[in-house]
Amino acid sequence: MKIKVLSAAVVAAVVAWSGAVFAASAPNDPYPKAAAALYEKAKQEGAVIAYTVWDVEHIVAILDAFSKRYPGIKTSYWQGRNPEIVQRTVTEFQAGKESVDIILSDNAPPVIRAAGAIQPYETVQKDFLVLHDPTMPIVSLQIQALVYNTKKLKPGDLPKNWEDVANPKYKGNVALDDPMRAGPLSSQLAGLKELWKNDAKFAAYVKGLKALNVPVNKSTSAMFRLVVSGEYAICQPALLHDAMEERDEKHSPVEIVKTAPPVVFPRYGGIYAKAPHPNAAKLLAEWLITPEGQATLDKVGREASRKGFQSKTSIEHAYPKGTKPIPVNDKGFMEDPKKWLDTNVKPLWEG
Amino acid sequence: MLAGSLIVTPVIIVIVRSFTTARLGAAVGFSLDNYMRVLHDPKILPMLQNSIVYAGGSALFGTLVGAMLAWIVARTNTPGKTLVELMPLYPILMPPVMKNIAWVLLLSPKSGILNNMLQQAFGIDHPVFNAFSMPAMIWVFGLTCVTLGYLFLLPVFLSFDPSLEESAYIAGSRPMRTLLRITFPLAIPAFLSALVLNFLRGLRSFETPVLQGSPGGIDVFVSKVYDSMSIDYNPGLATAYSAVLIVLSVAALILYVRTTRFSERYATITGKGYRVKVVDIGWWKYAAFVAVFVYFLIGIAIPFVVLIITSLIPYYDYETFMKFPTNVDLASYHRVMHHPSFVSGLYNSLALSIVIAVVTVFAGIVMAFTIYRTKVYGSKVFEFIGTIPLAFPPLVLSLGLIIAVIDSPFYNTLWALGAGLFIAYFPYALRNASGAIVNIHRELDEAAWVHGARWRHVFFRVTLPLLKPSIAGALFYIFIEALRNIDVAVLLVAPGMEYGPVTLFEYFRVGQWAEAAAGGVIYLVILIVTVTIAKFVFNVKFSL
């Protein structure tokens, strides 16, 4: 009996130790110290409430893993789309409600921040991140890929890069996202404009897409489905995790164009300005950036934001070595996409 | 009055905020900026034109088909009575977005099942069907409009005084002429009720325009409203755009009120005793059976089969679809069944939907009774108030409700969610009850008044029992709709509260069509089994 108890204690200790190592593996990692301090306070707070755009299955798995790592913190969530998250959070903020702790989403947190409803928090793990924002931890990435249907296009006929999609030879074969909505194509345009710093090149690209004279789609997911089904040959653009899941798990006839660099957009863990449990929220955001948190995100199919993290949806895995992603960093676009698009895209698209 | 206040409060909030707030709800004092932006938007007119063609075409097509089905079921000697009664009910159970997905898979120009079959069978190399066209949009949304036409018209035909038709026969009128000149005109109030509702639903419907309109380059007005919320983050601007829908709603309501202003003309339920007469339509009865069966095939069987196969194959393209059943894959079902809140969410939404259906239908009848059977000053305005929620996008309206209750104990409770669903479905309950009450002759009320009855006696002893058929249809419709509501519910669900449709139908929203189809199939099977058991085991009569 004693041996059993002893061996159980040893196993538990090893598991706890290895978990801690897994949670913070780098030697100069500031996470363990920061997490210990946050956890003490978070335990006092006793709960964390997340608003998220992520699928229910994903957020449940993520919060369960967090609860296992940090017992004593009750987790709950509310799930909605970005406009719903923005409206709910901003309305609650304006009414002075202490309703939520952390906003886990892509487009919504910068807009909420612009309304003053985010309290700035800089992650202690900033050096490990692919993209960094000093006011909101970037816990995951949205990675856009140029995707094609392998039954519809031969490798020799592929576009070489994003600009190539505007080639008239692809007319009728491109499923094009609406560049005037807050969707992936508009964020790609924001990224490319910043990267190129060349207005003429940017204008030629937008006008080239317009000249394809194809109807634009208002649903990224429906557009991707039409490419999988063979209605269109090229998806401009698709999300990398969708493409990987379709290709590797469902064996759909889709593949990414590896010569077109991925466009990366941050997925934030923004701390709500009136968070009732701010330390638990910060702890959750920090934990999501650790290798353990990133592994949990990866397990549900979400892309990692930590440099060098290897997974099926990481840039290193999906693209050739040395591929440089195109980051979307334009604060003006992120906080007021409508204004940015009206200034930079509308005159070219509708002019 | 209570129902009116509940509806008016969020409506007033969103209207006032459209004059006083800008992006992200920032206070700006009194301003007409939102409305000026709408007035100066050059895209409004072409988009509005598309909306009117789409909503009007769908409403007319769907309501007419629904009316024909109701007449066949209620008044004809079509064989297979039980089957004929059930067949129009099943398509109601299929959520509109599932119909959209199924018809996109069937009618897509290059990858669609029908076009590919035609190409293989007859060598037709150009697409015959196009899912991304206005006729296809009208076809698919029109099919979802059949429900209201059927449920609103069925009680009218089931409570029809046959002496009106007999007079026509005695005067030498043939059955078809009697149908067109006597039967259908008397059903005008209920028909217009369904038509107006379907038209307003079409004006603000979003799934069909997104899934079928935008890939075909067809932009409708409601996308402006949604863009205001999703890219401008400006509910005030969304409300300003909704004002255009309010104007159209008022116009449609004025048309309805003017057409039915001499309501006694349309009364088919009078004080005379009678039995509803079944019309012998001769050999046409077989054609009628075929018509109902064809609707059953088109309305649910074919799209349902497409969805079942889609849910059982790894992904959809025509080649993979045709390989079924050699490539069966149950992964989608496994995923849906293991969804963290599938069972608990479904239970919550079932319970809430039953309550909402009962409360909303009862409130709708009370309001319709007040409008058409009492002399309460200004009661006609309730006709407008009761329909106005249809002019607003659900997200805007539920935001108004949130603002109304945010400082009260109701916030983040089932009460707020219930109130949201009540407001969303009250127009259906009201229009249903209005159409039915107009068909009850005032002489029945007057007889009660003469004998000293008070209003409550008239309401509970006379009107309510005569409305039974309409009540059954409205309860059924609102229950089914509330059970799958996402748009209104999503903002009002509290953190930690599991609500079925929000979780089950998220697959539709994130574009996982195989999982969406699997979830939809499970959901449909539950409902079909429930309806069938209710019909055969408990002998529940959905039609009367």
Protein model, in words:
Chain A is an alpha/beta fold. Chain A folds into two domains: 28-141 and 266-318, Periplasmic binding protein-like II (D-Maltodextrin-Binding Protein, domain 2), CATH 3.40.190; 142-264 and 322-349, Periplasmic binding protein-like II (D-Maltodextrin-Binding Protein, domain 2), CATH 3.40.190. Chain A has helices at residues 2-23, 31-45, 56-69, 82-94, 108-114, 184-196, 199-211, 220-229, 240-249, 278-289, 291-299, 315-318, 331-335, 337-344, 346-349; strands at residues 47-52, 74-79, 102-105, 138-149, 174-177, 216-217, 234-239, 254-256, 263-271, 303-304, 326-327. In chain A, strands 1, 2, 3, 4, 5, 6, 7, 8, 9, 10 and 11 form an eleven-stranded mixed beta sheet that branches. In chain A, helix 2 (31-45) runs antiparallel to helix 10, helix 4 packs parallel to helix 5 and helix 6 (184-196) runs antiparallel to helix 7. Chain A is globular, with a radius of gyration of 22 Å. The termini of chain A are far apart. With 544 residues, chain B is an all-alpha fold. Chain B has helices spanning 2-20, 33-39, 44-75, 81-86, 96-107, 113-122, 134-158, 162-170, 175-186, 188-204, 207-213, 222-230, 235-259, 284-312, 318-323, 331-337, 342-373, 381-387, 394-405, 414-438, 442-450, 455-466, 468-483, 489-492, 500-504, 506-509, 513-536. The radius of gyration of chain B is 24 Å and the shape is globular. The relative contact order of chain B is 0.14. The mean pLDDT of chain B is 83. At the A-B interface, strand 1, helix 3, strand 2, helix 4 and strand 6 of A face helix 12 and helix 19 of B.
